[in-house]
Amino acid sequence: MHNESKEYKINRILAFGHENFKPADKNEKTELRAFKNLRKRLINTSSILYFKPIIPLNGKLIKPDILWIHPQVGILVIEVKAWDKNFIRNGEWKEDGKFYGKNDSYGSNPIQEANNFVEKINRKIQKIPEFKKQDLPISFIIYFPNLTEREYDSSTDEIFKNMVPKEFCLFRGETNLIEKLVSRLREYNYVNFNKIISEKEFEPIRKALFPHLSISKINITVSEEDIPVLDIYQENLLHGHWKGYRILRGTAGSGKTVVLIGKAIYEKLKNPDKKILIVSFANSLINDIKTSIEQIINLRKLDISIDDFHIKTVDSLITDLYIKYVNEFDDASEQANILIEKIKENPDIIEESDKYDVILCDESQDLKKDVFQIIKALSKDNTLVIFGVDETQRIYDERDWKWTDVGYNAKGRVTVLKRSYRNPGNILKTAVSLLKKDSVLIEELRELEAAVVSDDILPMREDGEEVEFYIANNEFTKVKEIVENLIKNNVKPEDIFILSPTANVLGYYEIALKSILPEDKIHSFSSYSEKGMKYIPKDKLVIMPYKSAKGLERPVVIVTGVHMLPYKQSKTAKDKKRDRKTLYVALTRAQRKLIITAQKEEGFAVDLKEILM
Q1: In terms of residue numbers, what domain contains 358?
Q2: pLDDT digits (tens, 9 = 90+) for 576-602
Q3: What residues contact 256, with CB distance under 8 A and at least 6 apart?
Q4: Which of 162, 180, 203 is the last residue of a domain?
Q5: What positions does the domain NERD occupy (predicted)?
Q6: Are 600 and 474 in the same domain?
Q7: Helices 604-612 & 573-587, crossing angle to 10 degrees?
Q8: Which of 20-24, 42-46, 104-108, 405-409 has the lowest mean pLDDT?
Q9: How many CA atoms lie within 13 A of 303 on its CB side?
Q10: What is the pTM of this model?
Q11: Per-residue pLDDT for 511 more than 70?
Q12: 359 and 226 both lie in a single domain
């Protein structure tokens, strides 16, 4: 993602998809056992093993039993059959092409089945530009975990042996497993399985097969070739959780939102009947999530629609429930409290048809306590709930809760995203250094286990430009000059955010910029704007307050008015810590270039000057 400058290596097998699988019959038990055996035997190979992966193709899903991927070897479909020597001894092939055993139990021709998967996967792979000019071997093998090679050899059923030739088979107890697998793809002696492989080498294959790993980019006209994908660690989160609740913690730009989007698409592809809710605090972020999902659906030609997802702000969710279950003329600010009282009076008030199979909450640190009760009321017994959270970005009043306060025990249920992708190292360092100017704040964040204070956070990029800092008597004129210079240096208006500490000066920036940009290339909004204005157009420079930018990003961000923080109305230490976190949010919106301006050397402008000068 985002032009990584650091190469991360894979030095052992990665296994996805098996963690929460519950076998329904003997065949599925055998498939799971086969997968676990392969994982154990391949433990030291730099490769990926998928259990029952979901691969969309032309509006349908193909689901091979097991898929083994090695970028220097190829892709191997592993078809698993639970057949043993008795099944083969007592079975026969019939005209329908199936092999029947006792009691009319049967199995499809595994060669035909596996070859069908190979042909479909090959067609999908060939659409990816990286593979149009190179040969990527794709083949199959039939795995019999209940049948030994000796038992196969001793079988007198020549019809079976002709239908399933030995060279296509992997048997129980094979000692040369790796050689057997690779022999179905290419000569194994040309492959060094002890070689550590970079994660990036896997990307083209993963991108080709699994569209739910795609990440929507800022430029909506991006080609399929340029679509980035989730990293290996993020992908693992899509497979690892299927019910209960999980807390997904990460610093700004660690990919919390893209993981939630990937999970939503993955769950919908896996089961189109699942009812999925994505909820967050801000209109701008919700609109951005909708745009991202729609873009992935269109670019990857998925047989699902944006209308298949329920994507709402917290306020709209509460209003919808309030209208249905309360339907009284109360002030909008009281609707949540009244709805909660109704739920407390009757915990079963929410109809089953209004509950969800998957609930994904982005920017959960912004939610008030009562919202968590509503989320519980919307959950079924087996609902999966994932909370994306960054306590460092908790910048609103009445949000000083801990997980135990809202009915969720975080112990053992937290996953931390340790890679920071959005911000180059120098930008992230500037933002974190601002937080560290307040030692009490850092200690509080440490108690909350906020990701930003962890020594494990890995900035993935060092390609950012130097952070610029200016003090100017007239910030509006200075920002106009900065934007004019950026455009002269081939920066597009749609690549720029201008962030202000307050909403009441947005119009002044807009007026200043109209002298150098067409009016239709500028968009501004705040929390006071009409709902229809609270969105991020992909083709315009956007001006908005710090808080409205939460969860959003652009290549170039101009953070203005840093001298105004702490705000005049912030009298207590608690208020000033909140203001410091608010500025941290603004600074971490920049993907490539961060420019900071102030009118005078006051407030947090003093801290930033010390950090940068």
Answers
A1: 214-417
A2: 999 999 999 999 999 999 999 999 999
A3: 248, 250, 362, 388, 389, 390, 417
A4: 203
A5: 28-144
A6: yes
A7: 50
A8: 104-108
A9: 11
A10: 0.86
A11: yes
A12: yes
